[in-house]
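Quick board copy: two proteins, each given as sequence then C-alpha coordinates.
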Amino acid sequence: MALTKIPMTVEGAERLRQELENLKKNDRPRIVKAIAEAREHGDLKENAEYHAAREQQSFCEGRIQEIEGKLSHAQIIDVKSIAETGRVIFGATVDLINVETEEAVSYQIVGEDEADIKANKISVSSPIARALVGKEVGDIAVVKAPGGEVEYEINAVRHL
Protein backbone atom coordinates (compact mmCIF):
# COMPACT_ATOMS: atom_id res chain seq x y z
CA MET A 1 0.00 0.00 0.00
CA ALA A 2 1.54 3.28 -1.11
CA LEU A 3 1.21 6.14 1.33
CA THR A 4 -0.43 9.16 -0.17
CA LYS A 5 1.19 12.56 0.03
CA ILE A 6 -0.37 14.95 2.53
CA PRO A 7 -0.85 18.46 1.10
CA MET A 8 0.65 21.16 3.28
CA THR A 9 1.39 24.84 2.85
CA VAL A 10 4.94 26.17 3.20
CA GLU A 11 3.90 27.92 6.44
CA GLY A 12 2.35 24.74 7.85
CA ALA A 13 5.48 22.70 7.13
CA GLU A 14 7.68 25.38 8.71
CA ARG A 15 5.52 25.39 11.88
CA LEU A 16 5.91 21.59 12.14
CA ARG A 17 9.69 21.83 11.63
CA GLN A 18 9.93 24.45 14.42
CA GLU A 19 7.86 22.28 16.78
CA LEU A 20 10.06 19.27 15.95
CA GLU A 21 13.24 21.24 16.61
CA ASN A 22 11.86 22.50 19.95
CA LEU A 23 10.89 18.94 20.99
CA LYS A 24 14.34 17.57 20.12
CA LYS A 25 16.51 20.44 21.43
CA ASN A 26 14.53 21.59 24.48
CA ASP A 27 11.82 19.19 25.66
CA ARG A 28 13.66 15.87 25.14
CA PRO A 29 16.82 16.90 27.14
CA ARG A 30 14.67 18.48 29.89
CA ILE A 31 12.64 15.26 30.26
CA VAL A 32 15.77 13.04 30.29
CA LYS A 33 17.19 15.24 33.05
CA ALA A 34 13.90 15.01 35.02
CA ILE A 35 13.96 11.20 34.74
CA ALA A 36 17.58 11.09 35.97
CA GLU A 37 16.73 13.33 38.95
CA ALA A 38 13.65 11.27 39.81
CA ARG A 39 15.72 8.04 39.69
CA GLU A 40 18.04 9.47 42.32
CA HIS A 41 15.12 9.66 44.76
CA GLY A 42 15.13 5.88 45.13
CA ASP A 43 12.23 3.42 44.82
CA LEU A 44 10.77 3.83 41.32
CA LYS A 45 7.52 1.97 42.05
CA GLU A 46 6.20 4.72 44.30
CA ASN A 47 8.00 7.64 42.65
CA ALA A 48 5.34 9.91 41.14
CA GLU A 49 7.94 12.30 39.69
CA TYR A 50 9.61 9.43 37.83
CA HIS A 51 6.29 8.15 36.42
CA ALA A 52 5.23 11.65 35.38
CA ALA A 53 8.56 12.23 33.62
CA ARG A 54 8.33 8.86 31.85
CA GLU A 55 4.81 9.74 30.70
CA GLN A 56 6.07 13.10 29.39
CA GLN A 57 8.89 11.28 27.60
CA SER A 58 6.42 8.90 25.97
CA PHE A 59 4.26 11.81 24.78
CA CYS A 60 7.29 13.75 23.51
CA GLU A 61 8.73 10.79 21.58
CA GLY A 62 5.31 10.00 20.12
CA ARG A 63 4.89 13.58 18.94
CA ILE A 64 8.39 13.58 17.40
CA GLN A 65 7.54 10.41 15.46
CA GLU A 66 4.17 11.86 14.39
CA ILE A 67 5.74 15.11 13.09
CA GLU A 68 8.58 13.28 11.33
CA GLY A 69 6.01 11.03 9.64
CA LYS A 70 3.88 13.96 8.52
CA LEU A 71 6.86 15.85 7.14
CA SER A 72 8.16 12.77 5.32
CA HIS A 73 4.78 12.36 3.59
CA ALA A 74 4.12 16.06 3.06
CA GLN A 75 3.59 17.49 -0.37
CA ILE A 76 4.56 21.08 0.34
CA ILE A 77 2.71 23.46 -1.94
CA ASP A 78 3.86 27.06 -2.29
CA VAL A 79 0.73 28.76 -3.61
CA LYS A 80 2.66 32.00 -4.13
CA SER A 81 4.71 30.30 -6.86
CA ILE A 82 1.59 29.24 -8.79
CA ALA A 83 0.12 31.70 -11.29
CA GLU A 84 -3.28 33.07 -10.27
CA THR A 85 -5.97 31.93 -12.68
CA GLY A 86 -9.09 32.72 -10.65
CA ARG A 87 -9.53 28.99 -10.00
CA VAL A 88 -9.72 27.74 -6.39
CA ILE A 89 -6.75 25.50 -5.53
CA PHE A 90 -5.06 24.20 -2.38
CA GLY A 91 -3.39 27.04 -0.47
CA ALA A 92 -5.45 29.79 -2.09
CA THR A 93 -7.36 32.37 -0.07
CA VAL A 94 -10.94 32.57 -1.30
CA ASP A 95 -13.26 35.57 -0.77
CA LEU A 96 -16.87 34.40 -0.62
CA ILE A 97 -20.25 36.06 -0.44
CA ASN A 98 -23.16 34.17 1.08
CA VAL A 99 -25.80 34.38 -1.66
CA GLU A 100 -28.69 34.48 0.82
CA THR A 101 -27.33 36.86 3.50
CA GLU A 102 -24.75 38.75 1.39
CA GLU A 103 -22.30 38.22 4.25
CA ALA A 104 -18.66 38.25 3.08
CA VAL A 105 -16.07 35.80 4.39
CA SER A 106 -12.54 34.73 3.42
CA TYR A 107 -10.94 31.33 3.90
CA GLN A 108 -7.54 29.90 3.11
CA ILE A 109 -7.62 26.25 2.08
CA VAL A 110 -4.88 24.41 4.01
CA GLY A 111 -3.82 20.91 5.08
CA GLU A 112 -5.74 19.10 7.80
CA ASP A 113 -3.13 19.83 10.51
CA GLU A 114 -3.11 23.53 9.67
CA ALA A 115 -6.86 24.10 9.84
CA ASP A 116 -7.84 26.83 12.32
CA ILE A 117 -11.32 28.27 11.86
CA LYS A 118 -10.47 31.24 14.14
CA ALA A 119 -7.71 32.19 11.68
CA ASN A 120 -10.05 31.50 8.69
CA LYS A 121 -7.96 28.50 7.63
CA ILE A 122 -10.08 25.55 6.56
CA SER A 123 -9.02 21.98 5.89
CA VAL A 124 -8.87 20.87 2.25
CA SER A 125 -11.11 17.96 3.28
CA SER A 126 -13.81 20.17 4.88
CA PRO A 127 -17.21 20.42 3.16
CA ILE A 128 -16.64 24.10 2.27
CA ALA A 129 -13.21 23.46 0.73
CA ARG A 130 -14.47 20.42 -1.19
CA ALA A 131 -17.29 22.55 -2.64
CA LEU A 132 -14.83 25.33 -3.62
CA VAL A 133 -11.81 23.52 -5.11
CA GLY A 134 -11.85 23.66 -8.89
CA LYS A 135 -14.40 26.46 -9.08
CA GLU A 136 -13.60 29.92 -10.44
CA VAL A 137 -14.36 33.55 -9.60
CA GLY A 138 -18.05 34.19 -10.27
CA ASP A 139 -19.07 30.55 -9.71
CA ILE A 140 -21.59 29.56 -7.08
CA ALA A 141 -20.45 26.84 -4.66
CA VAL A 142 -23.13 24.86 -2.84
CA VAL A 143 -21.97 23.73 0.59
CA LYS A 144 -23.88 20.98 2.35
CA ALA A 145 -23.92 22.23 5.93
CA PRO A 146 -25.64 20.64 8.96
CA GLY A 147 -28.37 23.29 8.73
CA GLY A 148 -28.98 22.67 5.02
CA GLU A 149 -27.33 23.84 1.83
CA VAL A 150 -25.57 27.20 1.76
CA GLU A 151 -24.67 28.93 -1.51
CA TYR A 152 -21.52 31.03 -1.77
CA GLU A 153 -20.46 33.13 -4.71
CA ILE A 154 -16.70 33.15 -5.27
CA ASN A 155 -15.74 36.82 -5.28
CA ALA A 156 -11.92 36.50 -5.48
CA VAL A 157 -9.16 33.89 -5.37
CA ARG A 158 -5.82 35.12 -4.06
CA HIS A 159 -2.44 33.41 -3.71
CA LEU A 160 -1.05 35.02 -0.55
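And the next:
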Amino acid sequence: MILTPTLWRTSRVLAGPTRLDLLRRILAGAGPGVSEFAAAAGLSEPRASQELRRLQARGLVQMVREGRHVTYRPVPDAKVPSAKPLLAAAKAALAKRPDEETIRVAQAFGHDRRLRIVRELMNGPRPARELAAAAGIPEMALFRHLRPLKEGGVARRTKNGWELAPNSHPLAKAMKALLED
Protein backbone atom coordinates (compact mmCIF):
# COMPACT_ATOMS: atom_id res chain seq x y z
CA MET A 1 0.00 0.00 0.00
CA ILE A 2 1.44 3.38 -1.02
CA LEU A 3 0.81 5.79 1.85
CA THR A 4 3.69 8.23 1.50
CA PRO A 5 1.93 11.12 -0.30
CA THR A 6 -1.02 10.92 2.04
CA LEU A 7 1.15 10.65 5.13
CA TRP A 8 3.46 13.55 4.55
CA ARG A 9 0.71 15.79 3.20
CA THR A 10 -1.54 14.93 6.15
CA SER A 11 1.36 15.69 8.48
CA ARG A 12 1.72 19.11 6.90
CA VAL A 13 -1.98 19.77 7.42
CA LEU A 14 -1.73 18.71 11.09
CA ALA A 15 1.32 20.93 11.56
CA GLY A 16 -0.81 24.06 11.08
CA PRO A 17 -1.86 25.64 14.40
CA THR A 18 -5.11 26.98 12.92
CA ARG A 19 -6.09 23.60 11.46
CA LEU A 20 -5.15 21.88 14.72
CA ASP A 21 -7.40 24.30 16.61
CA LEU A 22 -10.26 23.69 14.18
CA LEU A 23 -9.79 19.92 14.45
CA ARG A 24 -9.96 20.22 18.25
CA ARG A 25 -13.23 22.14 17.93
CA ILE A 26 -14.64 19.52 15.54
CA LEU A 27 -13.64 16.73 17.93
CA ALA A 28 -15.32 18.61 20.79
CA GLY A 29 -18.48 19.05 18.74
CA ALA A 30 -18.24 22.82 19.13
CA GLY A 31 -19.86 25.01 16.47
CA PRO A 32 -21.73 22.98 13.92
CA GLY A 33 -21.16 25.29 10.93
CA VAL A 34 -18.36 27.16 9.24
CA SER A 35 -19.51 30.53 10.56
CA GLU A 36 -19.52 29.20 14.14
CA PHE A 37 -16.03 27.72 13.69
CA ALA A 38 -14.80 30.98 12.18
CA ALA A 39 -16.19 33.06 15.04
CA ALA A 40 -14.84 30.72 17.72
CA ALA A 41 -11.38 30.59 16.13
CA GLY A 42 -11.25 34.30 15.28
CA LEU A 43 -11.03 33.68 11.53
CA SER A 44 -12.85 35.03 8.53
CA GLU A 45 -15.42 32.62 7.13
CA PRO A 46 -13.49 32.10 3.86
CA ARG A 47 -10.29 31.29 5.79
CA ALA A 48 -12.12 28.93 8.15
CA SER A 49 -13.78 27.24 5.19
CA GLN A 50 -10.45 26.83 3.42
CA GLU A 51 -8.76 25.32 6.50
CA LEU A 52 -11.70 22.98 7.13
CA ARG A 53 -11.56 21.82 3.50
CA ARG A 54 -7.87 21.00 3.97
CA LEU A 55 -8.73 18.76 6.91
CA GLN A 56 -11.48 17.17 4.84
CA ALA A 57 -9.20 16.66 1.83
CA ARG A 58 -6.82 14.60 3.99
CA GLY A 59 -9.74 12.39 5.06
CA LEU A 60 -9.72 13.50 8.69
CA VAL A 61 -13.19 15.03 8.79
CA GLN A 62 -16.42 14.62 6.91
CA MET A 63 -18.31 17.54 5.42
CA VAL A 64 -22.08 17.30 5.53
CA ARG A 65 -24.16 19.72 3.48
CA GLU A 66 -27.77 20.42 4.43
CA GLY A 67 -29.03 23.00 1.96
CA ARG A 68 -26.72 25.98 2.29
CA HIS A 69 -25.51 24.90 5.71
CA VAL A 70 -22.26 22.91 5.93
CA THR A 71 -21.08 21.03 9.03
CA TYR A 72 -17.92 19.06 9.72
CA ARG A 73 -17.74 15.86 11.74
CA PRO A 74 -14.75 13.84 12.96
CA VAL A 75 -15.42 10.90 10.64
CA PRO A 76 -12.41 9.46 8.77
CA ASP A 77 -12.74 8.91 5.04
CA ALA A 78 -12.79 5.16 4.35
CA LYS A 79 -11.03 5.79 1.01
CA VAL A 80 -7.95 7.17 2.81
CA PRO A 81 -6.24 4.23 4.57
CA SER A 82 -4.26 6.42 6.96
CA ALA A 83 -7.18 8.66 8.00
CA LYS A 84 -8.63 6.51 10.79
CA PRO A 85 -5.38 5.91 12.72
CA LEU A 86 -4.21 9.50 12.22
CA LEU A 87 -7.53 10.95 13.37
CA ALA A 88 -7.42 8.74 16.47
CA ALA A 89 -3.82 9.81 17.11
CA ALA A 90 -4.67 13.49 16.65
CA LYS A 91 -7.62 13.13 19.02
CA ALA A 92 -5.41 11.54 21.69
CA ALA A 93 -2.69 14.16 21.19
CA LEU A 94 -5.09 17.10 21.34
CA ALA A 95 -6.57 15.77 24.57
CA LYS A 96 -3.28 15.39 26.45
CA ARG A 97 -0.37 17.03 24.66
CA PRO A 98 0.62 20.67 24.10
CA ASP A 99 -0.13 21.87 20.60
CA GLU A 100 3.51 22.88 20.11
CA GLU A 101 4.64 19.29 20.66
CA THR A 102 2.02 17.96 18.23
CA ILE A 103 3.07 20.54 15.64
CA ARG A 104 6.76 19.55 15.98
CA VAL A 105 5.90 15.86 15.56
CA ALA A 106 3.68 16.61 12.55
CA GLN A 107 6.43 18.77 11.01
CA ALA A 108 8.89 15.92 11.50
CA PHE A 109 6.84 13.70 9.18
CA GLY A 110 5.93 16.52 6.78
CA HIS A 111 8.16 15.59 3.82
CA ASP A 112 8.49 12.45 1.71
CA ARG A 113 12.26 12.35 2.28
CA ARG A 114 11.73 12.33 6.04
CA LEU A 115 9.42 9.35 5.69
CA ARG A 116 12.14 7.54 3.73
CA ILE A 117 14.64 8.37 6.47
CA VAL A 118 12.33 7.03 9.18
CA ARG A 119 11.70 3.85 7.18
CA GLU A 120 15.44 3.30 6.88
CA LEU A 121 15.98 3.96 10.60
CA MET A 122 13.33 1.32 11.35
CA ASN A 123 15.95 -1.16 10.14
CA GLY A 124 18.31 0.01 12.87
CA PRO A 125 20.83 2.78 13.57
CA ARG A 126 22.92 4.00 10.66
CA PRO A 127 25.86 6.30 10.06
CA ALA A 128 24.79 9.42 8.14
CA ARG A 129 26.55 8.46 4.90
CA GLU A 130 24.93 5.01 4.87
CA LEU A 131 21.54 6.46 5.82
CA ALA A 132 21.71 8.98 2.98
CA ALA A 133 22.57 6.28 0.46
CA ALA A 134 19.87 3.90 1.70
CA ALA A 135 17.22 6.64 1.61
CA GLY A 136 18.38 7.87 -1.80
CA ILE A 137 19.03 11.38 -0.48
CA PRO A 138 22.15 13.54 -0.94
CA GLU A 139 24.06 13.76 2.33
CA MET A 140 23.63 17.55 2.61
CA ALA A 141 19.87 17.19 2.19
CA LEU A 142 19.86 14.39 4.75
CA PHE A 143 21.03 16.77 7.47
CA ARG A 144 18.36 19.33 6.53
CA HIS A 145 15.71 16.64 7.01
CA LEU A 146 17.24 15.16 10.15
CA ARG A 147 16.84 18.51 11.94
CA PRO A 148 12.99 18.43 12.04
CA LEU A 149 13.08 14.70 12.81
CA LYS A 150 15.31 15.46 15.80
CA GLU A 151 13.21 18.47 16.89
CA GLY A 152 10.07 16.31 16.70
CA GLY A 153 11.66 13.65 18.87
CA VAL A 154 11.54 11.08 16.06
CA ALA A 155 15.28 10.61 15.45
CA ARG A 156 18.37 11.19 17.51
CA ARG A 157 22.08 11.33 16.93
CA THR A 158 24.30 8.74 18.55
CA LYS A 159 28.06 8.37 18.59
CA ASN A 160 27.75 5.95 15.64
CA GLY A 161 25.20 7.84 13.54
CA TRP A 162 21.42 8.18 13.74
CA GLU A 163 18.62 6.09 15.21
CA LEU A 164 14.91 6.31 15.90
CA ALA A 165 14.21 8.01 19.19
CA PRO A 166 11.64 6.55 21.56
CA ASN A 167 8.60 8.80 21.24
CA SER A 168 5.33 8.21 23.06
CA HIS A 169 3.43 10.94 21.20
CA PRO A 170 0.30 9.36 19.67
CA LEU A 171 0.96 10.94 16.27
CA ALA A 172 4.56 9.65 16.17
CA LYS A 173 3.37 6.17 17.12
CA ALA A 174 0.66 6.18 14.45
CA MET A 175 3.01 7.44 11.76
CA LYS A 176 5.63 4.80 12.56
CA ALA A 177 2.96 2.08 12.54
CA LEU A 178 1.70 3.25 9.14
CA LEU A 179 5.25 3.32 7.77
CA GLU A 180 5.80 -0.28 8.91
CA ASP A 181 3.01 -1.52 6.63
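Board note added afterward: Residues 116 and 135 are 6 Å apart (CA to CA).
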